[in-house]
Amino acid sequence: MKIALLGYGKMGKTIEQIALQRGHTIVIKAKNNNYTITEADIAIDFSTPSAAYNNISNCIENNVPVISGTTGWLEDYDKTVALCQEKKGAFIYASNFSLGVNVFFELNSYLAKMMNTLKDYKVSMEEIHHTQKLDAPSGTAITLANDIIKEHTSYNSWSLEQEKEKALPITAKRTEDVPGTHSITYKSDVDTIDITHTAHNRQGFALGAVIAAEWLYGKTGVFTMKDVLNIS
Ligand SMILES: NC(=O)c1ccc[n+]([C@@H]2O[C@H](COP(=O)([O-])OP(=O)(O)OC[C@H]3O[C@@H](n4cnc5c(N)ncnc54)[C@H](O)[C@@H]3O)[C@@H](O)[C@H]2O)c1
Ligand SMILES: O=C(O)C1=N[C@H](C(=O)O)CCC1
């Protein structure tokens, strides 16, 4: 496929390596909105929270299927879905494209469902990322928190504050060079259960995004990584 990389930073460059290894060509390496999307068969957006919606809607308007991994723009997600449906386009967003994290999402939901009957355990979450990250908490932490809230009746929201009524507390730490670590902890007076996913580098996110692009090409609709990986 002829791929447009919308965002040619840490992720764009890692996706380029994986896409070339898998036989694709890169026709656009955008660092701003100065590009002509119609040159591409498909676009992969890993840009910035303020740029993502314009990039994605530009693709949909021009009938170019688009994958987005950019986080921190989800206030515009519903509008994007409506546009994609109206234009009969193709779109996938995932807060995390790593295959391991997508298994971790399933584990998190299953654990939350079991723990819902054990109200002595309090849930908390910690995410750690590199210091250049623009958004907090991470998109992945928000997905994990929303999945817990769906299963666990003690929580109806998440918060970066630690002691908020019915809110699942998330701690967001920024440490140089950390690609992404997410932990969920259930703590009672007698013991603790922790589950953690640790990314060792950005290759897993990039591989998942290229697999999603290969899967989306030729389809119409709005999809998620659950559709791509056929898990759960
Ligand atoms: N979903 C996932 O699996 C996943 C994994 C890693 C990172 N991310 C997210 O991807 C995004 C990018 O991460 P990164 O580490 O590569 O950031 P980065 O800062 O290294 O790169 C961002 C790039 O976007 C470019 N950019 C700015 N405005 C643009 C525009 N209008 N059009 C196109 N490009 C533009 C910048 O010049 C830069 O090259 C972040 O939102 C991050 O949270 C998601
Ligand atoms: O490096 C980042 O930025 C990451 N962003 C995603 C998130 O916000 O969850 C995925 C992990 C890496």
Automatic annotation (TrEMBL):
<feature type="domain" description="Dihydrodipicolinate reductase N-terminal">
    <location>
        <begin position="1"/>
        <end position="97"/>
    </location>
</feature>
<keyword id="KW-0457">Lysine biosynthesis</keyword>
<keyword id="KW-0521">NADP</keyword>
<keyword id="KW-0028">Amino-acid biosynthesis</keyword>
<dbReference type="Pfam" id="PF05173">
    <property type="entry name" value="DapB_C"/>
</dbReference>
<comment type="subunit">
    <text>Homotetramer.</text>
</comment>
<keyword id="KW-0520">NAD</keyword>
<feature type="domain" description="Dihydrodipicolinate reductase C-terminal">
    <location>
        <begin position="100"/>
        <end position="229"/>
    </location>
</feature>
<comment type="pathway">
    <text>Amino-acid biosynthesis; L-lysine biosynthesis via DAP pathway; (S)-tetrahydrodipicolinate from L-aspartate: step 4/4.</text>
</comment>
<dbReference type="InterPro" id="IPR036291">
    <property type="entry name" value="NAD(P)-bd_dom_sf"/>
</dbReference>
<comment type="function">
    <text>Catalyzes the conversion of 4-hydroxy-tetrahydrodipicolinate (HTPA) to tetrahydrodipicolinate.</text>
</comment>
<feature type="binding site">
    <location>
        <begin position="94"/>
        <end position="97"/>
    </location>
    <ligand>
        <name>NAD(+)</name>
    </ligand>
</feature>
<keyword id="KW-0220">Diaminopimelate biosynthesis</keyword>
<feature type="binding site">
    <location>
        <begin position="69"/>
        <end position="71"/>
    </location>
    <ligand>
        <name>NAD(+)</name>
    </ligand>
</feature>
<feature type="binding site">
    <location>
        <position position="130"/>
    </location>
    <ligand>
        <name>(S)-2,3,4,5-tetrahydrodipicolinate</name>
    </ligand>
</feature>
<feature type="active site" description="Proton donor">
    <location>
        <position position="133"/>
    </location>
</feature>
<comment type="similarity">
    <text>Belongs to the DapB family.</text>
</comment>
<dbReference type="Pfam" id="PF01113">
    <property type="entry name" value="DapB_N"/>
</dbReference>
<protein>
    <recommendedName>
        <fullName>4-hydroxy-tetrahydrodipicolinate reductase</fullName>
        <ecNumber>1.17.1.8</ecNumber>
    </recommendedName>
</protein>
<feature type="active site" description="Proton donor/acceptor">
    <location>
        <position position="129"/>
    </location>
</feature>
<dbReference type="InterPro" id="IPR022663">
    <property type="entry name" value="DapB_C"/>
</dbReference>
<dbReference type="InterPro" id="IPR000846">
    <property type="entry name" value="DapB_N"/>
</dbReference>
<feature type="binding site">
    <location>
        <begin position="139"/>
        <end position="140"/>
    </location>
    <ligand>
        <name>(S)-2,3,4,5-tetrahydrodipicolinate</name>
    </ligand>
</feature>
<keyword id="KW-0963">Cytoplasm</keyword>
<keyword id="KW-0560">Oxidoreductase</keyword>
<dbReference type="InterPro" id="IPR023940">
    <property type="entry name" value="DHDPR_bac"/>
</dbReference>
<dbReference type="GO" id="GO:0008839">
    <property type="term" value="F:4-hydroxy-tetrahydrodipicolinate reductase"/>
</dbReference>
